[in-house]
Amino acid sequence: MGPEPLKQLHDAIVGPLATTRTQGAWYREWRLVSLDGSTRDVADTAANTAAFGKASGSRGPAGYPQIRFVCWIENGTHVLFASRMDGYATSEHALAKQVIPGLSIGMLCLADRLFAGYSLWSQSRSTGADLLWRVGKTFLLPADRRLPDGSFLSSLYPSVQDRQRQRNAITVRVIEYRLEGVTDAEPRYRLITTILDHVKAPAEELAALYHERWEIETALDELKTHLRGSRIILRSKMPDLVRQEFHGLMMAHFAIRSRMHDAALRARVDPDRLSFLHAARVARRKLPLYGAIPPSGSESISPSHSR
């Protein structure tokens, strides 16, 4: 059947879980989500190497082929959704374009400066979601109008020529700040947002909120380390099976996080207070029990069908 049915199943069932009762999932009226990507080692076979490629450095190619993937995380529940994968040579920026349809009205999307750019910003903004992204110091963002909270409005252009001719501009709100007394902090941080009303979302609150983006690092660690245990590489030896395994792994993570979310709602606690590692161990212990349950139905299963 190939990997497509499992990918379609993944896309159909994996999505945000938070309700209005979920603690830590919201900023005011917005559902918090973050964008990021990572890599996974896969089995070292000729077919996988040809399909996905290997990282290379001064000492030569890496020991294992790698896939690259990008996804959204719902910050409050650690659910990874709208995931897309490809070979190692495919950039996170290119994969990000494929996950943008996972955004929707009512979300506030956090993203690092790697993703900042007119094209991706424009595409993300068109979904109706609000954005809060960090930008690099090379971005030219002169202050068009200062706001009472210290932020200012500026214009984002697709090219130098567009800026010179004052066309195709997107108005953004810029927030600049420093982290005093923080070791290894950079001299200045700059964020841009689609939320232009400083009363609706004050600059100080958005600056503090941006660092919630690091929730995705914890979620990726759950996926890459705790869910797989000692098996640090994907086991599949053929590219189509790697794609199947990737989507299966994402659904397994979603299944555990879904149960954890239900438990957090019943206990009226933040899902962050629950241990993913403990939940994964409980799920593993229950697998033999559920594997022993026969299919439902009034007709008996013949030996030929049970093999």
What does this structure look like?
- This protein has one domain: Transposase Inhibitor Protein From Tn5, Chain A, domain 1.
- It has 10 helices and 12 strands.
- The strands form 2 sheets. Strands 1, 2, 5, 6, 7, 8, 9, 10, 11 and 12 form a 10-stranded mixed sheet that branches. The chain has a two-stranded antiparallel sheet with strand order 3-4.
- The protein is globular, with a radius of gyration of 22 Å.
SSE arrangement:
Elements: H1 4-13, E1 26-27, E2 30-41, H2 46-52, E3 56-57, E4 60-61, E5 66-74, E6 79-87, H3 92-99, E7 107-111, H4 118-125, E8 130-134, E9 145-146, E10 152-156, H5 160-165, E11 170-177, E12 189-193, H6 203-210, H7 215-226, H8 239-267, H9 276-291, H10 303-306
Parallel strand pairs: 2-7, 7-8
Antiparallel strand pairs: 1-2, 2-5, 3-4, 5-6, 8-12, 9-10, 10-11, 11-12
Helix pairs in contact: 1-8, 8-9
Structural domain count: 1
Which structural category do the helix and sheet elements fall into? alpha+beta
Number of strands: 12
Determine and state the CATH class: Alpha Beta
Could you name the ranges where pLDDT drops below 50 across 5 or more consecutive residues? 298-307
**H-E order:** HEEHEEEEHEHEEEHEEHHHHH
- The oligomerization state is single chain
CATH architecture: Alpha-Beta Complex
Share of helix among residues?
25-40%
Number of helices: 10
CA gyration radius, whole angstroms? 22 Å
CATH topology: Transposase Inhibitor Protein From Tn5, Chain A, domain 1
Q: What is the residue-averaged pLDDT?
A: 88
The shape is globular
* Sheet of most strands: 10 strands, mixed
Beta content comes to 15-25%
Rounded to the nearest angstrom, the distance between the terminal CA atoms is 19 Å
